[in-house]
Amino acid sequence: MNDLRFYCLSAGGFLALLIALFTVLGNEHIFKSTLGKVAKPYQNIDG
């Protein structure tokens, strides 16, 4: 029972780490794409 609890805890921690990693990577991608959309009109103004 103790081993099972440890396994669940480590698996949950690993899953949380993966989710955090994908969230950071996804946010970086979203941030870059929105930054590109915001910056594009200004680039067009410059010519």
Brief characterization of the structure:
Helix content is 96%, strand content 0%.
Structural commentary:
This protein has 47 residues and is an all-alpha fold. Helices cover 96% and strands 0% of the residues. The chain has one helix spanning 2-46. The N and C termini lie far apart (68 Å). The model has no long low-confidence stretch (mean pLDDT 81).
Label this structure with key terms.
single chain, mainly alpha, 47 residues
Topology readout:
Layout lengths: L1 H45 L1
- Quaternary structure annotation: single chain
pLDDT < 50 stretches: none
Shape, principal axes of CA atoms: rod-shaped
Q: Which structural class matches the secondary elements?
A: mainly alpha
Instruction: Tally the helices.
Output: 1
The fraction of residues in strands falls at under 5%
Radius of gyration: 20 Å
Distance between the termini: 68 Å
Number of DSSP-assigned strands: 0
Q: Can you give the helix content as a percent range? A: over 70%
Largest sheet: none
pLDDT averaged residue by residue:
81
- SSE series: H
